[in-house]
């Protein structure tokens, strides 16, 4: 029999995942943390069959008994062949709408015999608000991109109007639109924010709607440290939202000891000098174009620095002939690395990165300076924050890697006197987040507030 009384019932929290890329594990890690903090609550984790299989088949995740997974449609029609555009499968999933999400709720309720009392959702699945409203329960979206990038989605229409009326070649300042983010430039913004009209994807329309939807949330969760966000940005967001909670970053779980060094990365790093290694990784979603991969290889070879490069086997063919052999004594190229452990290693001196949120957070937490080559989405704003707000790295000139540009950036951070400030700032920021993440820190207080919301 389903529990109906509202006063003393066990709470049942439904969690909607955005089943793509690096958004999965941070959300599951939050739910695992909540499940331990609120053992009397049941958590129904709702994703697609594929995304749930990725998460719940991973033995490292140590799923508590009060979390169960339920699968809903990914929206891909039977027999449909996906194109190369990464947004296509996102749009297909979003098109399934509230009805698909409700089916996940129905599965969970039928199985647990408990009505849902709260909904936590990735903010990229805003139709979950409609489901929450229909059920008359609190809605708590989680913003898993870099926190400050949320601002652009509150001011999308103003930004588009200003860009449309700007003259050709005009330098467009965003200081009047994005409080606390005066360093951000138009070229840093996601293209979806700038472009509207008939070419707008469903995903970009979804992002543009966040400014009107998030104020209806019981609380909005940030996957970052409040101490590192510009105070004016935080103040602006608090003025728009019912509640804004900053949790210490919800990073991916570490691999087991048996697999963490399957490629020999860590034992190789053990043999390198302190802060001497260039670590290169551009994430798993988008690979740089061949000419940039070629330039990375040429820069690594010319620089003379030891390097660790996470590079899929199927793209090695674009590297210069003989590069791997010529650099084998000081370089290591592997298809996968345990990034958390790599960035924590004392030999790593700089991280050449695409500025994915998780990668930047891991680098910050370990005091590793960055060389940023953003590709899409929130990565441009994140790279700008790395260079101009926190001053813990540099953006690649022109946002296109060439041999000379990358060599210059590596020399700046690893050896040049001018790079002292960047290296010092990286350590300073690391210490700030260490204090913030302590048991009596702001993140712990905000987490306790979240536990109270879902438990009452």
TrEMBL record:
Coiled coil: none annotated. Pfam families: UDPGT. CDD domains: GT1_Gtf-like. It is an enzyme of class 2 (transferase). InterPro entries: UDP_glucos_trans, UDP_glycos_trans_CS. PROSITE patterns: UDPGT (PS00375). Its EC number is 2.4.1.-. GO terms for molecular function: quercetin 3-O-glucosyltransferase activity; quercetin 7-O-glucosyltransferase activity. Keywords: Glycosyltransferase, Transferase. Belongs to the UDP-glycosyltransferase family. This is Glycosyltransferase. It comes from Arachis hypogaea (Peanut).
């Amino acid at each position: 029999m389903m529990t109906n009384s509202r006063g003393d019932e066990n709470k049942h929290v439904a969690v909607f995942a955005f089943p793509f890329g690096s958004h999965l594990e941070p959300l599951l890690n939050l739910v695992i943390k909540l499940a331990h903090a609120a053992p009397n609550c049941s958590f129904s984790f709702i994703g697609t069959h594929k995304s749930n299989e990725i998460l719940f088949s991973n033995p490292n995740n140590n799923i508590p008994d009060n979390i169960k997974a339920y699968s809903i449609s990914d929206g891909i029609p039977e027999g449909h062949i996906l194109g190369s555009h990464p947004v296509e499968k996102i749009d297909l999933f979003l098109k399934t709408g509230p009805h698909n999400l409700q089916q996940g709720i129905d599965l969970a309720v039928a199985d647990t015999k408990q009505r849902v009392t709260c909904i936590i959702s990735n903010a990229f699945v805003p139709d979950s608000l409609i489901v929450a409203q229909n059920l008359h329960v609190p809605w708590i979206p989680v913003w898993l991109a870099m926190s400050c990038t949320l601002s652009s989605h509150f001011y999308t229409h103003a930004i588009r109007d200003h860009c449309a009326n700007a003259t050709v070649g005009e330098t467009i300042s965003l200081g009047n639109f994005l409080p606390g983010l005066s360093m951000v430039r138009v070229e840093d913004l996601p293209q979806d924010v700038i472009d509207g009209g008939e070419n707008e994807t469903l995903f970009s329309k979804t992002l543009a709607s966040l400014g009107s939807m998030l104020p209806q949330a019981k609380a909005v969760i940030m996957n970052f440290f409040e101490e590192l966000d510009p105070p004016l940005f935080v103040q602006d967001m608090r003025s728009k939202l019912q509640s804004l909670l900053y949790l210490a970053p919800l990073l991916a779980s570490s691999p087991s000891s048996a697999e963490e060094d399957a490629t020999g990365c860590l034992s190789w790093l053990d043999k390198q000098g302190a802060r001497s290694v260039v670590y290169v990784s551009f994430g798993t979603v988008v690979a740089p174009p061949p000419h940039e991969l070629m330039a990375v290889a040429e820069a690594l070879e010319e620089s003379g620095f030891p390097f660790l490069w996470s590079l899929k086997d199927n793209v090695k063919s674009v590297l210069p002939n003989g590069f791997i052999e010529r650099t084998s004594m000081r370089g290591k190229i592997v298809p996968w690395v345990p990034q958390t452990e790599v960035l924590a290693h004392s030999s790593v001196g700089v991280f050449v990165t695409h500025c994915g949120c998780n990668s930047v957070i891991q680098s910050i937490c370990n005091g590793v300076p960055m060389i940023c080559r953003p590709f899409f989405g929130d990565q441009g704003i994140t790279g700008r924050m790395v260079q101009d707000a926190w001053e813990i790295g540099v953006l690649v000139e022109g946002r296109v890697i060439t041999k000379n540009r990358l060599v210059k950036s590596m020399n700046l951070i690893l050896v040049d006197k001018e790079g002292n400030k960047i290296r010092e700032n990286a350590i300073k920021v690391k210490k700030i987040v260490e204090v913030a993440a302590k048991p009596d820190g702001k993140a712990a207080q905000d987490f306790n507030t979240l536990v109270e919301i879902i438990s009452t």
